[in-house]
Design goal:
Layout: E1 17-20, H1 24-33, E2 41-44, H2 83-89, H3 93-99, H4 106-117, E3 123-124, E4 131-135, E5 138-142, E6 147-150, E7 153-155, E8 160-161, E9 175-177, H5 181-184, E10 192-196, H6 200-211, E11 218-222, H7 243-249, H8 254-263, H9 273-289, E12 295-299, E13 302-310, E14 313-320, E15 326-331, E16 333-336, E17 340-341, E18 381-383, H10 388-391, H11 401-413
Parallel strand pairs: 1-2, 1-7, 2-3, 7-18, 9-16, 10-11, 10-16, 11-12
Antiparallel strand pairs: 4-5, 5-6, 8-17, 13-14, 14-15
Helix pairs in contact: 1-11, 6-9
Amino acid sequence: MFANNDRTSPASEALDLAGIGIGPSNLSLASLLDGVGNVRAHFYESRASFDWHPGMMLPDVELQSSYLKDLVTPVMPTSPWSFISYLVAHKRLYAFLNAQYDAVPRREFARYLEWVASQLKSLSFSSTVREVKFDKDKFHVQFDSGAVTARNLVLGTGTTPSVPSWATPFLGERCFHNSEAKHRLPGLNASRIAVIGGGQSGGEVVEALLNAKSTLKELNWFSRRHNFEPINDTAFSNQVFSPEYVYAYLNLNSDQKLDALKASILTSDGLSISTINAIYRRLYSLRYLENRNIDAKLSPNRDVIQVESDKDGYRLIVRNRFDGGVEVAHADAIVLATGYQFRLPDAFAGLSDRIQFDRHNRPVLDDRYCLNWNGPKQNRIFAQNAGRYSHGIADSQLSLMAWRSAHIINSLVGRPHFDLEPHDSQVNWLSSGHDALGQNIAVDY
């Protein structure tokens, strides 16, 4: 493997795998590859160091996944890069266990990820990929200074904020995505704030606003859902975050996949019970105990259909899907908790005409997490966290991150280095007699 700052590679020394982007997904892959011999892999990141969602690290935010679903444990529990190893290395395993967290603080998990990233030798930061080309049998990855060649690529650039079309003209200091919340909220001198989006991110923003010592006098929280819904975190619901569910999901056609995705949305995108209770109790305290004059309006079943400039603020036109009415709201600032979407990095512009996209302009993935493209089959472009529609709702979460990385490694080495045979599922997803392995992605190499 290359040294940490080596960004050049002669054509005769092509990497087996070049990773573009170092978020949790590619960090998981790098961690698992650290124990696999005979694979020359290196990963590149434009940022100067590892930093996981820094703009979303609001006070007291929690992880919605088990800490055992870390970078490596689900497929390699003896790895030195597990969350438990991190706790032991920092001499706080017992203190952590005694804290009896219902959910792990997100800051703790972020520090674990940083700890791993600081030690792996297969990572290079401050390495912006400017262009990716393909020639003969290799990808050429160009940086500002130097280049590498690789037989395979893996995208780990993560998802980008999804911004409604009506909000695009107003983006700035007073209209921003929640991915910037930590940096924007403290200096947001606004008495009327609208939060758009009723999922966990929206709830965390609302909780932070209600707890802040600020000039806030009016808060509008809009959600498209029927209510401010809790995450569906029961044992059977969590089966959608199992390998067995993914194998079953791969058997579905595109319409069936979309129906299944919609049906399971609250297993992933609902509000945690702790966030719901914290917001409700804070509203109670403000109204009845503290006599603070905050007009908090929680409005589900709403679609924001238009926004206009209004003096120093904004005028929002909102449709109420519960009774069909149209409402008008005013705000000095707007926070968009409107989700994320996967898109190809700009460096792939030269290859985009060789990559297949669906009717929604999303890159198409095959069952093995490879982009469908018209190049040689032995030269693959793996994509992490890009398969929400092709592989199911768990693909955009941490839950199956290590399992997905193990699949990629098995494809690279051409054999089942990791045992990914499905376990006996507690839930029968497919009709009796159906092939539960889908396209046999776990065992067919």
